[in-house]
Amino acid sequence: NAGVMQNPRHLVRRRGQEARLRCSPMKGHSHVYWYRQLPEEGLKFMVYLQKENIIDESGMPKERFSAEFPKEGPSILRIQQVVRGDSAAYFCASSPYGGTTEAFFGQGTRLTVV
Amino acid sequence: DAKTTQPPSMDCAEGRAANLPCNHSTISGNEYVYWYRQIHSQGPQYIIHGLKNNETNEMASLIITEDRKSSTLILPHATLRDTAVYYCIVRNGSARQLTFGSGTQLTVLP
Predict the structure, then answer these.
(1) Helix, strand or coil for residue B12?
(2) Which residue of B97, B100, B104, B105 is the best one to mutate when testing the A interface, meaning the one whose CB has the most A CBs within 10 A?
(3) What angle do CA B28, B31, B35 make, to 5 degrees?
(4) Phi, psi (5° rounding) for residue B82?
(5) Considering only CA atoms, which of A26, A78, A76 is closest in space to residue A49?
(6) pLDDT tens track for A27-62
(7) Could you say which of A89, A91, A103 has the minimum Cβ distance to residue B46?
(8) Is residue A102 very low, low, confident or very high in pLDDT (cuts 50, 70, 90)?
(9) What is the rounded CA–CA span in Å between residue A35 and residue B64?
(10) Residue B78: how many CB atoms within 10 A of its CB?
């Protein structure tokens, strides 16, 4: 059973470009979470999705960031018009249910904005 | 979710038990204690969680005090690969997210 797969592992974008980060949850998991870790800082929750629904986006920046988890295919975190401050590691986690079940994390996508 | 307090860093000799403490004095009755770790540059890894009873799995043991105000994660025979930041997280059953604090940087020394 493959773990949570994120791609790309490393992504370099110029200021103003778009970044698309992909997350394939573990098989059988229908709950996906995105977290961001800025350099030398802790992990911060961004958004929680179930298939085709955004459940909680309280940690998402108000502008330029969006997330989706379509019926088929991976979850996508999209950052439009990237700025240097978006440089960070973005981690996706999945779980089979919500609530207290443990979440399993992917290896992350390291975004560098130049 | 209740706030947790952990020491910023700890050392442990290879092969010895690593005991990582966590205070969560404001924990409420329906909140669980979770432990994750993050090895440098990797994604966080789930270790163990519990409500009030002590728990053990292949990775670690979790000891929760009777009043539930603190807990200890025990790695019985630490190896160099256990060097990581360890996060203690308190979370209620309806929480949609994990709230990570600063954690404890555990360094296992040869």
Answers:
(1) strand
(2) B97
(3) 130
(4) -85, -5
(5) A76
(6) 989 999 999 999 888 899 999 999 889 999 999 999
(7) A103
(8) confident
(9) 28
(10) 22
